[in-house]
């Protein structure tokens, strides 16, 4: 069996910064409420007409990741695109990246696992590399939330949390036995499928009927979140799936050099940090600046942590995510 390792990373966020105070002009909320509950101070939103989409932000992050990996774009054997906000209902965003990068016929596939999407994609890529089927896989996590949020008081419980952005990595066959992905761990619990969901654009409803109704009050086109249920499950599942990874590798929490949690909520990250006895330097958070960018959050945070010199050769890096589905997962990487 081969091993896989991350050989290049990149990220892109739109320039348009939306602070908590900017949101108070749109809805009944406050900087203090948002900061206290979530740790978020600002987020980036695509500005209408700035050319950014889920796929094109993914392309920007990918170009950086590919360049840093040192491979030629034509050596990419597979494109995996994790998102809950694809440019189109179909086809997926992976093929749009392929078109923009001008890569002729490699397979491209979308992964629809929301906040855990990047971990699911990383795990999928790892399996393809382990078996020897592929050598270089481009993995993207990208979201355009802002175009689909209810930016009024009615939607404030959800809309203050989410931001736009993309991260990408190149995962390649490793020549080293010691470094690379050690293991990945995936879980889902479909009984909570509707507790964090966007059910409006659905094949359960006939499109002509929806169009005829033309109902501006139809909130099913906005995301729904049972915030407290998500919070309670997140803290439990994050902890479990990190522990599962450590146990599989006969490791203990004190061996973690860097934990990069999906940026769901700073309070969730802080809970996990405390639970595993990690210092501020051992957990990377940037939700304060970007909000929750769902599938984009881990590759964005990992890129920033690496750029800041916080991930060094030999480090044990742990990635973990929880979100809609419910789905959750972790990955242990020896850098
Ligand atoms: N600004 C001001 N008030 C707000 C608000 C906002 N943006 N959003 C909700 N409120 C109000 C509610 O209307 C409610 O008012 P009421 O008591 O008069 O009815 C009150 O604040 C409390 O709402 P509640 O939803 O119970 O707040 P909470 O303490 O559960 O915090 C979350 C809400 C969303 C911050 C919290 O549940 C959470 O972080 N959940 C996890 C979310 C998450 O991680 N999602 C990503 C998953 S990957």
Describe it.
- It is a single chain.
- With 335 residues, the protein is an alpha/beta fold.
- 33% of the residues lie in helices and 23% in strands.
- The strands form four sheets. A five-stranded mixed beta sheet has the order 1-7-6-4-5, with helices on both faces.
- Helix 4 (93-101) links the parallel strand 4 and strand 5.
- Helix 3 (54-69) packs across helix 4 (93-101) and helix 8 (227-248) runs parallel beside helix 9.
- The longest helix has 22 residues, at 227-248.
- The radius of gyration is 19 Å and the shape is globular.
- The two termini are 19 Å apart.
- Residues 29, 33-34, 37-38, 115, 156-157, 160-161, 225, 227-228, 230-231, 234, 264-265, 268, 292, 323 line the site of coenzyme A (COA).
SSE layout:
Layout: E1 3-12, E2 17-19, H1 20-23, H2 31-38, E3 42-44, H3 54-69, E4 78-82, H4 93-101, E5 108-111, H5 117-130, E6 136-143, H6 156-159, E7 165-174, E8 180-188, E9 196-197, H7 207-213, E10 224-225, H8 227-248, E11 258-261, H9 266-275, H10 287-290, H11 297-307, E12 316-323, E13 327-334
Helix pairs in contact: 3-4, 8-9
Coenzyme A (COA) binds next to α2, α6 and α8.
Quick overview of this protein structure:
By secondary structure, this protein is of the alpha/beta class. The chain has helices spanning 20-23, 31-38, 54-69, 93-101, 117-130, 156-159, 207-213, 227-248, 266-275, 287-290, 297-307, and strands at residues 3-12, 17-19, 42-44, 78-82, 108-111, 136-143, 165-174, 180-188, 196-197, 224-225, 258-261, 316-323, 327-334.
């Amino acid at each position: 069996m081969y091993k896989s390792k991350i050989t290049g990373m990149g990220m892109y966020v739109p320039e348009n910064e939306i602070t908590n105070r900017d949101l108070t002009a749109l809805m009944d909320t406050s900087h203090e409420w948002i900061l206290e509950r979530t740790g978020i101070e600002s987020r980036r939103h695509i500005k209408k007409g700035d050319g950014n989409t889920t796929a094109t932000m993914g392309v920007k992050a990918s170009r950086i990741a590919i360049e840093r990996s040192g491979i030629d774009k034509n050596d990419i054997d597979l494109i995996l695109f994790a998102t809950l906000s694809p440019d189109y209902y179909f086809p997926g965003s992976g093929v749009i990246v392929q078109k923009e990068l001008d890569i002729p016929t490699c397979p491209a596939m979308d992964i629809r696992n929301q906040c855990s999407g990047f971990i699911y994609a990383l795990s999928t890529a790892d399996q393809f590399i382990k078996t020897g089927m592929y050598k270089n896989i481009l993995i993207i996590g990208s979201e355009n939330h802002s175009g689909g949020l209810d930016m009024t008081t009615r939607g404030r419980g959800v809309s203050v949390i989410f931001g736009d952005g993309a991260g990408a990595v190149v995962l390649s066959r490793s020549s080293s036995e010691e470094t690379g992905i050690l293991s990945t761990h995936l879980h889902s619990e479909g009984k909570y499928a509707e507790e964090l969901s966007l059910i409006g654009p659905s094949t359960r409803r006939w499109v002509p009927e929806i169009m005829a109704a033309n109902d501006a009050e139809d909130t099913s086109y906005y995301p729904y979140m049972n915030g407290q249920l998500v919070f309670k499950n997140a803290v439990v599942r994050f902890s479990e799936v990190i522990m599962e990874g450590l146990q599989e590798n006969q490791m203990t929490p004190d061996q973690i050099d860097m934990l990069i949690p999906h940026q769901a909520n700073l309070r969730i990250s802080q809970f996990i940090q405390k639970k595993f006895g990690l210092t501020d330097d051992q957990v990377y958070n940037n939700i304060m600046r970007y909000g929750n960018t769902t599938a984009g959050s881990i590759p964005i945070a990992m890129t920033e942590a690496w750029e800041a010199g916080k991930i060094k050769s030999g480090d044990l890096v742990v990635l973990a995510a929880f979100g809609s589905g419910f789905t959750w997962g972790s990955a242990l990487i020896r850098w």
